[in-house]
Amino acid sequence: MNILAKPVNFINEVRSELSKVAWSTRKELLASTILVITVTLIMTVFIGIVDLSLSRFLSMVFK
Hints:
The protein has two helices and no strands. It has helices at residues 5-18, 26-61. The protein has a domain at 23-63. The termini are far apart. By secondary structure, the protein is mostly helical.
Protein backbone atom coordinates (compact mmCIF):
# COMPACT_ATOMS: atom_id res chain seq x y z
CA MET A 1 0.00 0.00 0.00
CA ASN A 2 1.52 3.31 -1.01
CA ILE A 3 1.60 6.45 1.12
CA LEU A 4 -1.50 8.02 -0.50
CA ALA A 5 -3.69 4.91 -0.34
CA LYS A 6 -4.06 4.96 3.46
CA PRO A 7 -5.46 8.50 3.76
CA VAL A 8 -7.78 7.93 0.79
CA ASN A 9 -8.99 4.66 2.33
CA PHE A 10 -9.53 6.44 5.67
CA ILE A 11 -11.60 9.20 4.03
CA ASN A 12 -13.71 6.62 2.21
CA GLU A 13 -14.36 4.73 5.45
CA VAL A 14 -15.31 7.97 7.26
CA ARG A 15 -17.78 8.86 4.50
CA SER A 16 -19.24 5.37 4.70
CA GLU A 17 -19.72 5.61 8.47
CA LEU A 18 -21.18 9.13 8.29
CA SER A 19 -23.80 7.92 5.83
CA LYS A 20 -25.04 5.53 8.57
CA VAL A 21 -25.57 8.33 11.12
CA ALA A 22 -29.16 9.27 11.93
CA TRP A 23 -28.97 13.05 11.56
CA SER A 24 -31.47 15.24 13.43
CA THR A 25 -33.99 17.22 11.46
CA ARG A 26 -33.90 21.00 11.56
CA LYS A 27 -37.03 21.00 13.75
CA GLU A 28 -35.48 18.59 16.27
CA LEU A 29 -32.24 20.57 16.34
CA LEU A 30 -34.07 23.85 16.94
CA ALA A 31 -36.18 22.31 19.74
CA SER A 32 -33.09 20.85 21.43
CA THR A 33 -31.23 24.16 21.17
CA ILE A 34 -34.12 26.09 22.71
CA LEU A 35 -34.38 23.52 25.49
CA VAL A 36 -30.67 23.75 26.32
CA ILE A 37 -30.74 27.56 26.36
CA THR A 38 -33.88 27.60 28.54
CA VAL A 39 -32.51 25.12 31.07
CA THR A 40 -29.22 27.02 31.17
CA LEU A 41 -31.01 30.29 31.90
CA ILE A 42 -33.16 28.68 34.61
CA MET A 43 -30.10 27.14 36.27
CA THR A 44 -28.24 30.46 36.05
CA VAL A 45 -31.06 32.30 37.83
CA PHE A 46 -31.38 29.54 40.45
CA ILE A 47 -27.64 29.47 41.21
CA GLY A 48 -27.59 33.28 41.31
CA ILE A 49 -30.44 33.39 43.83
CA VAL A 50 -28.84 30.71 46.01
CA ASP A 51 -25.48 32.52 45.87
CA LEU A 52 -27.02 35.86 46.78
CA SER A 53 -29.04 34.31 49.61
CA LEU A 54 -26.06 32.49 51.08
CA SER A 55 -23.88 35.60 50.78
CA ARG A 56 -26.39 37.73 52.67
CA PHE A 57 -26.99 35.03 55.29
CA LEU A 58 -23.29 34.53 55.91
CA SER A 59 -22.62 38.26 56.07
CA MET A 60 -25.36 38.57 58.75
CA VAL A 61 -23.93 35.62 60.70
CA PHE A 62 -20.36 36.90 60.71
CA LYS A 63 -21.13 40.56 61.59
